User: Fold OSTA protein from Pteruthius melanotis.
Amino acid sequence: SLSAGLDLPGRFLFATLTLMTLIAILVFIEEAVYIYRKIPSSKRSIIIWINAAAPVISTTSCIGMWVPRSTMFTDFTAGIFFAIVIHKFLMMMIKECGGQKMLLRRFENGRFTISTGPCCCCCPCLPRVPITRQTLFWLQLGTFQFAVFRPVLIFLSIVLWTNGNYILYNLSPKGPALWISCFIGALTLFALWAVAIMFRKVRILLKCKNIIPKFALYQFIVILNHLQTTIINIFATQKVIPCAPPLSSTARGSYIAQQLLIMEMFLITVISRVVYRRKYHDLDPPECVAEEPRDKKQPP
Assistant:
């Protein structure tokens, strides 16, 4: 633990960030109670899972900040949880459309645009795919595979780490860290692609469900938890972030990333409470039917 070696400003910073984490947890608990009481049981667990993403990442980052040697385990825990949340977000969009049968009925003659990010945004020539049970199955499989395979790969990483074969910042082609990281990166892109395809189709229909700000919050968590942390770790590995005894460059990079995540996830938790705290019985799917004809009236 670093608490014994901290000066007064350092202790104040640690105390402030820990307080922000505790407030984020309390805000989430209050929001979970509200969701449990006000939202139908078919959507209750999915929305609670999605709202829990920011507080869980904040909590794991706080633990990693106080106990630097636990960083690998806390990062892996946050990664496993968020892999499940990505699948839950896709399922939430389907549920908000009234379920799979209602979604197929609404978009009976519609098509998915697959030339979207993060995989195929530079391929506008790709054909549009008909919306059928099979294509919905493949989209759900795209996020489900990530929720299944990422925990398996993380478990494999921990096994190799305990045996001394897995070094997190050793990206040599001869080591397993590079190959496991690349495989997880590919799985992540496919999962995010599936969510983006679904969102592009339903964003107008679900505008009255606040789906656009919900998707924006989800995207912020993806960017901050993955891209920001990766960039900071690369800077630390290349010694751009200088060491500060007793912390090495890589340890200090993790330390900075965790502190930023605590503040960012605190803000996202508070904003999520505002966005998701709606009376969902006033926003049933029949009220959104008026949004669909706009899509149908568009010229080919």
